[in-house]
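Hi R.,

As promised on Friday, here is the backbone we talked about, encoded as structure tokens. Could you run it through your design pipeline when you get a chance and send me back a sequence?
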């Protein structure tokens, strides 16, 4: 005997968010739980077995809550809500701050695993393709620690391969020489902290962004250190930066081993370091894949196409 649909009253904005453009969000929920999602007006109607409807209702309510806060709802948000409903998990680990587009939260299961690793391990490697949130989530986690007073400094470094780590020939002071290579990092920090707070904390020395070469000879204590684009760090640079860790510090190393810009790809220190350190106490490795891409949906398809081409030995 068929059961009458369960109706959930929602605001118009929330109902539209649950449906999504061309009913895409509703289709994701239907596929995940074997239910029928309809928006007859004034809310959402769910048809299906009790278990499927219960899971789908959690997703609908999670989406509706975000929509009623005025936040944009992307497919990635729907997918993470589906994952949370399946596992019974709740919000984001690690006490992440809010960005300009609302609270920062993991959008895939791998992102959630990555954030958990950052809360429990002194050294975390985040490996995978562009668009998976490796750098942004690391910056968000570090910014959250800084805002809570758990660290004194947030330090973000990346190899300036384009300048061969020899920046002296560029015009201007150190900041003017470095900033062009650090634009993605500044964008993430601005998104999370806002321009005014970022400027104040940078002036106080609480936030530092610099090429790897400028970390040589230093001990980084009571800091959260992010090494970005680490596939372009040489083995010697990687060893140098990993051994900068001081008392009360943590480090996250991010990169895509398939996107090496060094003249000799074998010089890359990222895969070498992971091979040496994976399994060592206090070290965690999180590997992202194309399904974790949270940029434009086309980026995931591009990554998959390149992965397939690589698999053919091209």
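Update: got your reply. Pasting your designed sequence below so it's all in one thread:
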């Amino acid at each position: 005997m068929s059961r009458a649909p369960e109706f959930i009253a929602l605001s118009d904005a929330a109902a539209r968010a649950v449906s999504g453009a061309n009913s895409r969000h509703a289709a994701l929920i239907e596929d995940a739980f074997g239910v029928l999602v309809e928006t007859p007006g004034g809310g959402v109607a769910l048809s299906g077995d009790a278990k499927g409807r219960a899971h789908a209702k959690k997703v609908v309510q999670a989406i509706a809550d975000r929509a009623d806060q005025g936040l944009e709802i992307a497919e990635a948000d729907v997918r993470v809500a589906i994952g949370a409903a399946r596992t019974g998990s709740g919000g984001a680990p690690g006490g992440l701050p809010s960005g300009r587009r609302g609270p920062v939260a993991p959008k895939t299961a791998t992102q959630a695993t990555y954030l958990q690793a950052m809360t429990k391990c002194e050294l975390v490697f985040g490996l995978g393709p562009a668009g998976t949130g490796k750098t942004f989530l690391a910056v968000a986690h570090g910014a959250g620690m800084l805002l809570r007073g758990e660290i004194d400094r947030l330090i973000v470094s990346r190899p300036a391969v384009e300048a061969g780590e020899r920046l002296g020939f560029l015009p201007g002071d150190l900041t003017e020489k470095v900033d062009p290579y650090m634009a993605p990092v500044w964008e993430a920090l601005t998104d999370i902290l806002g321009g005014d707070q970022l400027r104040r904390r940078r002036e106080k020395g609480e936030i530092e962004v610099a090429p790897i070469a400028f970390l040589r000879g230093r001990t980084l204590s009571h800091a959260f250190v992010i090494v970005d684009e680490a596939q372009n760090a040489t083995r010697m640079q990687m060893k140098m930066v990993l051994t900068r860790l001081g008392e009360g510090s943590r480090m996250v190393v991010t990169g895509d081993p398939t996107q090496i810009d060094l003249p000799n790809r074998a010089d890359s220190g990222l895969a070498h370091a992971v091979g040496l350190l994976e399994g060592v106490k206090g070290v965690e490795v999180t590997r992202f894949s194309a399904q974790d891409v949270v940029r434009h949906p086309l980026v995931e398809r591009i990554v998959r196409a390149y992965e397939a081409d690589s698999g053919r030995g091209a």
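One thing I noticed while checking it: Confidence is low (pLDDT under 50) at residues 89-94, 162-171.

Thanks again,
M.
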